[in-house]
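Narrative of activities, Objective 1.

The group set out to show that a structural description can be obtained from nothing but a protein's sequence at a throughput compatible with the screening campaign. Below is one input-output pair from the validation batch, recorded exactly as produced.
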Amino acid sequence: MHYSFLVQAYVWGEATPPPHLPANLARPMCALADRLGQAPLLPYSAYVLDNWYRIDKSGPIDLDNIAMFQNFAGGEDENWFVLVHVAIEAEAGVLLDNAARLVDVCENGNEAEAERLLREMFEAWERIYGHFARMLERCDPYVYFHRVRPYIHGWANNPALDGGGLIYDGMDRYEGKPQAFRGQTGSQSSIVPAMDALFGVGHSDDPLKSFLDELHRYRPVPHRRFIEDLAERSTLRALVTASDNQGLKDAFNACLEQSARFRTRHLEYAASYINKQAGSIAGNDPDVGTGGTPFMKYLKKHRDENAAQVL
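Output recorded for this entry:
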């Protein structure tokens, strides 16, 4: 986490980003990334998942009891932006735990227990929205765009790096060629992809799907394995489709609509915090996400495909 912050600060801490990452940063960053099975720059896991602590060690993981280990510029807006994500991830533990339980429950054909678990997940989604709704309390869109976002971009499709990426000095395996790694983005979170895997939500084969497949490699290895196992083993959609239990079907659709709603909320915040902002900071394009994509178009399509797959 600390090294990835150093890398981002070196690249985006000046008005003109350098074309090279020096060897004394490139080599240890790549060594750490190799050990973790991730790309050698700031991922969502380092920015959010591994970047918080409890103020009261015996207290809960909520917004009144967590703080950041590391930030770039400091200040309430930057901290709050990350900590809201931490609170959401903590609340989503119910979704992921119940997803694993549902695999076994569906294999046993236990419709009553499947319905109960789905209803628990619906309530967890409601608590997640409670955290999401608090973003504006202490994170101003203008401040976020101009003071927080500039540091968390990657190198892919970034005009400030001539669109070609960053050269990692001292790394023979890259042969002196620019590397176009994608920046950290909330789309690297494992919550929604895990729900897609559980509920059998598919996405059409287009540049959006290719982007989502690519982002999967930026997640921590255990997260990838969990999502892949869910996609392989989940029979939830088949169980609900074959059932005459309307309560089960309603609970299934309600949860599916919750993840579509989450994508809608993400889209709304992306429009407010990024797309409606403007600035001349190098690499901080309001039309391109930190992952290097035309995010508004992608988020809308992702949301619509999710909503279209209710039963």
